[in-house]
Fold this protein.
Amino acid sequence: MKTIGLIGGMSWESTLLYYQSLNREVARRLGGLHSARVLMHSLDFEEVVRGQRAGDWDALAALLRQAAEGLAAAGADCLLICTNTMHKIAAQVAGEGLPPLLHIADVTGTAIRARGLRRVALLGTRYTMEQPFYADHLARLGVECIVPPEDERAEVHRIIFDELCRGQVLPASRQKLQLIVAGLTARGAEGVVLGCTELPLILAEDDVALPLFDTTTLHALAAVDFALHGAQPALAAA
């Protein structure tokens, strides 16, 4: 079994989901008391959030690259950035001499295309919904993203940072998210991408009428595929 390297702590609430998913899936596939071989570099999220707010993505890239290099030196065979937003700088974190970085949007796009879908609602932080890095990545895989209007984007962002990252899962916020998804469904969305690794804490398949793409779980399962079989995401043709 290969060793999975996690760049986590963004937030630790969702990194916990990664750790659970990795170990449960390895146990499911191998049986007995098997668990995943995992190395983790858990960052101080407050430092990351300050960099995001300041738009200092180069400094954040350097921070994550240092984490990646440390995981590689410790024996990681692959790397995961345990957050959608920070894939904005994935190309700066990955690189020659490092283990392969499994990109969360590659995994998500492949899952969407496997369901035969082309147009999805994208929920996430404002950075993920408003900046082009994520939607453009999915577009290269033949998937179009639609996002909520500005006031609803602000509300999704607030729920993530003020509630979910602090371990608060409120029924009223779930209802708000369901209404936002209903609006995107009326605009032609065929599925819903939970493009923030905290969103699976509050939304599950039974909460929406459309196919739901839990990027946290999809990313973790791809890492298990790599750890057990050396398989990387097979990108869907556009």
